[in-house]
Input
Amino acid sequence: MINLRNQMLFALATSGLVFSCQNSTDKQNADLVKPNSLTGTYKLIESKTIKGKDTVTAFTDSSQTEMFKMFNDDHFSFFNHDKQKGKGKAPLFVAGGGTYSFDGVKYQERLQYCSMRDWESNKFDFELRIKGDTLIQTGEENLPELGVKHTIVETYLKVK
Output
């Protein structure tokens, strides 16, 4: 009987320790974005391009242009266009998409399709942070054959 009681106390103590460890682990992982939480539609609200020591900040003028980025389980797409349907002073239409991988922080795009065709078939490594309904994407776009080497910081607001 005493042996059974000791085994029960040990089991309770052990499960308490396991529970405690799980809570500690869950707490440490709470700051990581779960890959499935990326799914949705995001609207660009600010974009920074850093080339060398120069930083260009472009606040999206929602009266002139808009950009959306969408994610499902394994694909992404983006669309950026002017609201004058190409008939204004600065006609703009850029779109692309492909597959991605995401571990909660590190994000890699594999661009399969793009209206800027020279960008197709390239991989881009970024870090993603999500704070509430805001997604911040940071990383380097490096395409030496096109003379492109800069860091981008894009801020998106989740719309759906």
User: Anything to note?
Assistant: Confidence is low (pLDDT under 50) at residues 1-31.
